[in-house]
Amino acid sequence: MLQTVWVSSPGSWALKKPGCHRDGKQINWKCGLVRTIIQHPCPRHYPKGRRKARMLRKIQICLCFFFISGILYEISLLSGCFFSYMPMSKHFLTPEQVLNLGKSIIFLETTERLEPTPLVSCSVESAARIYQDRPIILFMKGLTNDTALDFNSSYAAFSLLSSMKNVFIFPLQMETIFHETPLLQWYNQVDPEQEKNWVHVSSDASRLALIWKYGGIYMDTDVISIRPIPEDSFLAAQKSRFSSNGIFGFPAHHKFIWDCMENFVLKYNGNIWGNQGPFLMTRMLKTICNLTDFKGTEDHSCQNISFLNPQRFYPIPYPAWSRYYQVWNKSPSFNHSYALHLWNFMNNNRKTVVAGSNTLAEKLYKAYCPTTYEDLIQNAELRDLTLSEDAV
Fold first, then answer.
1. Given this model, what pLDDT does residue 87 score?
2. Is 90 exceeded by the pLDDT of residue 383?
3. DSSP-assigned letter for residue 55
4. How far apart are CA 286 and CA 206, in angstroms?
């Protein structure tokens, strides 16, 4: 749109029709940039008029710069270009702003722990590397809005994860998450002190509410990502006819997730481990699908929900979980897997990755979370060795 402004005399401004010529200056405006055409019917006004034109030009260029910068910033948020900015810029965003970017990968820590374990760090890092154009969010119950933790934190894993451009760490505020869902009334009535499985039950509820509200993929903090999941609406089969809730993905406001939240409340029994988790997902899936055994590496589909083969995430079943911490003569390729669940719940002996052990888990760390491996495992052991030698 072209608009013509005439200055008939210094300090006097009036809008005139384009093409109307009088003494003074003609200034054409377009996209906030200024083009001046100077006429000199009165030479004594020339120097002062030119200074005004220059000043006006500078003002308009500045305004145009801020306007264009704002547009580019909004576009960058939608396009994923945001993650090319410096890490500090992300600390000004709220959980809602990040979640509203869409297609988040969500992790939950429902204990009070503030220092992520190497396995948690590996899970988050591997997701950040595989899904570089998507927000990776770790919600931690131990955090509060007043907790001053960033990439300069004394917690090594926290510092490591905070420095990754697409990783965001936020406090887990359950009441806010459950707002406007069937879970809020349950949450206000339940007594966490009387719940023997509260850490797991509260996690089961939180993941449902977050995926319902914002969509994306939920992953347990012992899941190592190895390639992108191509599905938008999916459940992960732990075995034939049985669904896990350790990893699943849906668009926002999907009916299946809403139905799961309603059933969560209706059939609530916190004394039975998994009743609000994998058993919930399985019984809800059975209400809409005729589940059959898997053959080979095929996936099943029902009502636009993909029920993914156990090979996708559970090529090593939970009875054999310790094989991740053993040395293999020939490591498996996992060519049919999108991610690997390391069954940390079964790891009562707290087996860990040890540098130089050549276990399957160590090889996975090196391949899919190399920063975690180097900073939290290899360097930590070197520091411990140095301290031991100094003590001697």
1. 47
2. no
3. H
4. 22
